[in-house]
Amino acid sequence: MSDELVHYELADGVATITLDSPHNRNALSAQLRTELLGALGRAADDPDARVVVLTHTGPVFCAGMDLKEARGASSGDQGVNDVPAILQRIWTSPKPVVARLAGPARAGGVGLVAAADIAVAADTATFAFTEVRIGVIPAVISVTVLPRLHPRAAHELFLTGDVFDAERAAAIGLLNAAVPAEQLDATVRRYVDSLVLGAPTALAATKDLLQGERGRTMADDLADLQETSARFFASEEGQEGIRAFAEKRKPNWVP
Predict the structure, then answer these.
(1) Known catalytic residues?
(2) What is the rounded CA–CA span in Å between residue 89 and residue 109?
(3) Which of 47, 67, 182, 190 is the most buried (most CB within 10 A)?
(4) Is 127:147 a contact under the CB 8 Å cutoff?
(5) Regarding beta strands 105-106 and 97-101, do their DSSP bridges make them parallel or antiparallel, or are they unpaired?
(6) What is the pLDDT of residues 159-201, one digit of tens each?
(7) Over the stretch 15-44, which tens digit does the pLDDT of each residue have?
(8) What is an example of a Pfam family matching this protein (predicted)?
(9) pLDDT (0 to 100) of residue 112
(10) Nearest to 61 by CA among 29, 11, 99
């Protein structure tokens, strides 16, 4: 049995990248981050890949950062430092990226969803920006999330950390569609079938057009916010929040 946590499969012009770490809810561990970045690069360079589908095994799409690895790490060693490269590779992929969610996404996992060109979820999936509840902030993922979300919703959901459902995720711009679970694969297939009708060079150029330069670049934003995010993960509050999460208790700032 393979020990890899991310699988790459190419069939009929579709590169399917599967997160396969259900034991920790597909959290962004060091191994998964490395393998995901490699798979995304492989898809971008694969001349036979026309569309990329990002999906998962297990009941959860991605739970965000692996908090076990973040616990006790300095800001320079925080795994969040690797996330900008992943988000940027999805965002700037010359091949359209479709995110397929059969289950929940949290924190950094929502950042992956937002980075994709098209995102489809089962209507039973839920979402949350849980960072503030463990003493950190959604800094890096804000670069991909904020262009998608309606501003009022972003303020509410970033600040409260509340869970919201797939129907609302679609209404505020995070998803293209929320569908019954039995329709998920057919809906993803419909988007993929439409995307492969586009000429590869034209699709890549159209992505550039959609993302156009507007002042600061994504790389600038990610570099600045990666440092901020890592600082919060290593901070006194961040480490207390991570400990509280692991110990299944309230952090010390909750009355």
Answers:
(1) 131
(2) 15
(3) 67
(4) no
(5) unpaired
(6) 999 999 999 999 999 999 999 999 999 999 999 999 999 989 9
(7) 999 999 999 999 999 999 999 999 999 999
(8) ECH_1
(9) 98
(10) 99
Q: Tokens representing 70?
A: 């973040």
d(CA 45, CA 28): 23
Task: Kindly report the three-state secondary structure assignment for every residue of the chain.
Answer: CCCCCEEEEEECCEEEEEECCHHHCCCECHHHHHHHHHHHHHHHHCCCCCEEEEEECCCCCECCECHHHHCCCCHHHCHHHHHHHHHHHHHCCCCCEEEEECCCEECHHHHHHHHCCEEEEECCCEEECCHHHHCCCCCCCHHHHCCCCCHHHHHHHHHHCCCEEHHHHHHCCCCCEEECHHHHHHHHHHHHHHHCCCCHHHHHHHHHHHHCCECECHHHHHHHHHHHHHHHHHCHHHHHHHHHHHCCCCCCCCC
Which residues neighbour 217 within 8 Å (Cβ) at sequence distance 6 or greater?
none
Q: What does the alpha-carbon distance between residue 181 and residue 103 come to, in Å, rounded to a whole number?
A: 9
The better pLDDT of the pair 181, 1 is held by: 181
Q: 110: which 2 tokens?
A: 């929502």
